[in-house]
Amino acid sequence: MSETILIPQLAVIVAAAQIVGRIFRAIGQPPVIGEMLAGILLGPSLLGWIAPEASSALFPPESIPSLGALSQVGLVLFLFVIGLRHDPATLRGHGRTAVAVSIASLAVPFALGVWLAFALHEPLSGGAAGVTELALFLGTAMSITAFPVLARIVFDRDLLGTAVGALALVCAAVNDVVGWLLMASVLLVIGAGGGSPWLVVLGTVVYAAFVLIAGRRGLGFLARSAQAQQTVTPRLFALVSIIVLVSAALTDRLGVHPLFGAFLAGVAMPKDPAFVRELAKRLEDVTVVVLLPTFFVVSGLRTQVGVLDRADMWLYFAAVLAVAVVGKIGGTAIAARVTGKTWREGTALGVLVNTRGLVELVLLNIGFEAGLITPALFTMMVLMAITTTFIATPLFDLIYSPRRREGTPS
Fold this sequence. Notes:
Layout: H1 2-26, H2 31-41, H3 47-50, H4 52-58, H5 64-85, H6 95-124, H7 131-143, H8 147-156, H9 163-190, H10 197-218, H11 220-229, H12 234-254, H13 258-268, H14 273-302, H15 311-338, H16 343-353, H17 357-369, H18 375-400, H19 402-405
């Protein structure tokens, strides 16, 4: 049953993601926000509410594991692409502003997330996790920046050659790397992978060092082969795919998460522009259009806006959103101002790194599957991720439009 229904499920998922994504693109928003929202609309928050019979027929409980497995494949490939597009060389040579802003955009929201966990543990934990585990998880979740969404905003707004655009990309790249390291640490603390935490830490550190040092040197032949053939051949593409899947399987075996291994494999790949561009395009065509929307639906099936059925639940959500926005924008703006930027530049930079998007959803699903957060808190965090991503473009245009860029510094 689950196998036969997977094909119509995919047809509906891809169609919904494309339709809602195009609507959001038409109003000047990144399409990924519409795709995320489409996943929620296909879940119990809308389809399951207005047409429960149709919802249960389209997404019967026995079909969810197959859908989830497919979404995991999409995430592994997508995290590889993020790592592939991340060049560690971009983190060098950006001076004290980049260092200060990167640290502040991580540390301030992390600290506020920890505080929020202690405040919300009693009413929202439901015994799902201890306060220490919840604090580490919420701190990490508040620190996340969605590098792909931010990069698209920077590109669309023609900011690649500006100080704010360059700083935003550097901060997001640092956030990506540190965010996954923090998530790996959280999983080690709760023992999600089983085994001795210290052995897991040691194994992960050794493996990461091997991949990023020896692996980067050893994989250089991939780019040279692509240059010699003037393309990424099917055989070369197959070899890259094997490397990604083996790396993901190894980190899963170590007890961290397969996504971490996929990301490491991407970072270790050669950074020849033509090689990166062609390899990413081949993967993104299928991953972004077909596989990632399945992940949004799996997230949407877990998101139940109906559980926020009391005034106090919406107050808790307001607190989650306020901590997320104030931590990122406030911490970033203050650090930028201290290092010589204007308040306008600092606030605009904070708005950009406040985008959370898909990367946040990945983190939330890991936390949900590990038993760290309840359905209510999961729903609040998903709504926070969508809201912070949605407000990024209009807020940035309001603060840092071309007309305001040419104005006097504030």
